[in-house]
């Protein structure tokens, strides 16, 4: 039996949990019958080092993520706001504007793409993935299939997309993606129910494990929606519960913490609350949450903006970087990077450079905020406008 076990260990294609256990100094070694080592418990050895390297690259100083993974329907709403029809040609033109902004990689380390964009070329015929790599930006991919009603809950949602995820992830890796994104949500006005929190955490954990098995760094995103009149203390209370569940199930699914990135909501009052919070208050609550719930092994905390204005999202991020953190505390913004850029472009070819300048200004502002050096200089009234949308979907 011992000989057969040794042969199995030598030929196993995965990092064996038994080897990890042997390497530890255990004060109280349980009986052998309690130690049940399963080679399938951990990430494939061929990807473990690459996952850690990718995560560290995305979580590099002064840089963050450009979330440009809006579904075709949501991208259509953005285009409609500037009077453009929702066609593939118009989506291609806008996405080309974003990825070809000169020097974008100085401030942006990763770009989350929608499936169409991952396989798309720019208007000049260059593959978008290649353009990103030339900018020193890691391509990522949205892999969830959107929110649907959660039966048995208090009018809450769950995120679908686990069916076929392994094969899709393998194909995305082949196409050049190196990290993935899965967004699920928790609603405070609707509870949140224990069922909804557990479903969100379990779905994220299964997605994370599947992503790592196929070479993609999973961005773990349980968004706590801004919807509601609740105060910041209620948000903090719910966030503690959600993140406790998330990391419990990540551990249950043997996810490699060094090879993930998080995309949490900042701890703020509800968007409809009469009590507003200063950047310093948001920073204090959010960092207290992170220290209580997030292991230091996680390399990057890439905050979502969740409908905050461009300036508000940058100010809050800057406040969180006024002192050292165990993690890279940065951004993964969509509207909070693109809003002024989109309106400046307006669908007109002659406005492309001005729109790219607006994107670069916003990206640089958040880069400075990641370093704790943002001053607010040069901001416009447009950048200070809130972008909260009740019940927002992608």
UniProtKB/TrEMBL annotation:
Pfam families: Glycolytic (PF00274). One of its GO terms (biological process) is glycolytic process. Its EC number is 4.1.2.13. It is found in: Plastid, Chloroplast. InterPro entries: Aldolase_I_AS, Aldolase_TIM, FBA_I. Keywords: Chloroplast, Glycolysis, Lyase, Plastid, Schiff base. This is Fructose-bisphosphate aldolase. It comes from Vigna unguiculata.
């Amino acid at each position: 039996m011992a000989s057969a076990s040794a042969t199995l260990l030598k030929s196993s294609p995965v990092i064996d949990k038994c080897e990890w256990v042997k390497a530890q100094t255990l004060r109280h070694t349980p009986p052998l019958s309690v130690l049940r080592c399963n080679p399938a418990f951990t990430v494939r050895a061929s990807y473990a080092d690459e996952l850690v390297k990718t995560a560290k690259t995305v979580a590099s100083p002064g840089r963050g993520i450009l979330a440009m993974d809006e579904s075709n329907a949501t991208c259509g709403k953005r285009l409609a706001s500037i009077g453009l029809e929702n066609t593939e040609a118009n989506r291609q033109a806008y996405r080309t504007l974003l990825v070809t902004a000169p020097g974008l990689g100085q401030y942006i380390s990763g770009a989350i793409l929608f499936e169409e964009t991952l396989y798309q070329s720019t208007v000049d015929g260059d593959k978008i993935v290649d353009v990103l790599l030339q900018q020193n930006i890691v391509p990522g991919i949205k892999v969830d299939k959107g929110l649907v009603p959660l039966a048995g809950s208090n009018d809450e949602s769950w995120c679908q997309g686990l069916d076929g995820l392994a094969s899709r992830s393998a194909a995305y890796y082949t196409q050049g993606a190196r990290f993935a994104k899965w967004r699920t949500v928790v609603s405070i006005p609707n509870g949140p129910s224990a069922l909804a929190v557990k479903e969100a955490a379990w779905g994220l954990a299964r997605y994370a494990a599947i992503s790592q098995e196929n070479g993609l760094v999973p961005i773990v995103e349980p968004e706590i929606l801004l919807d509601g009149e609740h105060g910041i203390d209620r948000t903090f209370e719910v966030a503690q519960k959600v993140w406790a569940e998330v990391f419990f199930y990540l551990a249950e699914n043997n996810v490699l913490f060094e090879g993930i990135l998080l995309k949490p909501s900042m701890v703020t009052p509800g968007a409809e609350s009469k009590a507003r919070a200063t950047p310093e208050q948001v920073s204090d609550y959010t960092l207290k949450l992170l220290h209580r719930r997030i292991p230091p092994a996680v390399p990057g905390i890439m905050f979502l903006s969740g409908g905050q204005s461009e300036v508000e999202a940058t100010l809050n991020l800057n406040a969180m970087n006024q002192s050292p953190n165990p993690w890279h505390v940065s951004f993964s913004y969509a509207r909070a990077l693109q809003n002024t850029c989109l309106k400046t472009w307006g669908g007109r070819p002659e406005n492309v450079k001005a729109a790219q300048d607006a994107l670069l200004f916003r990206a640089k502002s958040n880069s400075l905020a990641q370093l704790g050096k943002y001053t607010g200089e040069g901001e416009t009234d447009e950048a200070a406008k809130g972008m909260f949308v009740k019940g927002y979907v992608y």
